[in-house]
Amino acid sequence: MYTFPIAVIMERRRLQSRWADEAWEAVGVVPAFGDNPATTRQLVAETDRDQFLVGGFALELFRDEADNYFLNLSSPVPKVFVNWRLEDGVARPVAVTVSYGEAARLLDSGEQVDGIAMSREMADWVGEFVNLHYKPAPRKKVRRNDPLAQDRERP
């Protein structure tokens, strides 16, 4: 199994709105080699925003998702998708994926998912996996509508 240890950067912005006091968003995904995987630490503490590094995640790649990884890598900006939930007023990442299909399934089920531009290091790693496991679907022959050919086939 292919795994790549990562940490997610979550940002809380304070809003000047009568409907909401703050907004949360996943704004970064960074490699976490050698870091304490279960830690959360504050990176930025400003009056209008805070950022937190949340560790303990790993991108996992699976052969049956190779088509979706290929679609992601062939897009103009490949992304890492972070699924997160608001718990007790704090946004907590739940899952991280590079599969378009998995991200779409999460969004369809009503989950919060943010897409973050994939780093070159992660894109190279995913690309290596795709090169090994992606098999394009065989091309199908397309029959053209030729009204004269149909008339010739009929007795």
TrEMBL record:
It comes from the Bacteria. Pfam families: DUF3305 (PF11749). This is DUF3305 domain-containing protein. It comes from Aromatoleum diolicum.
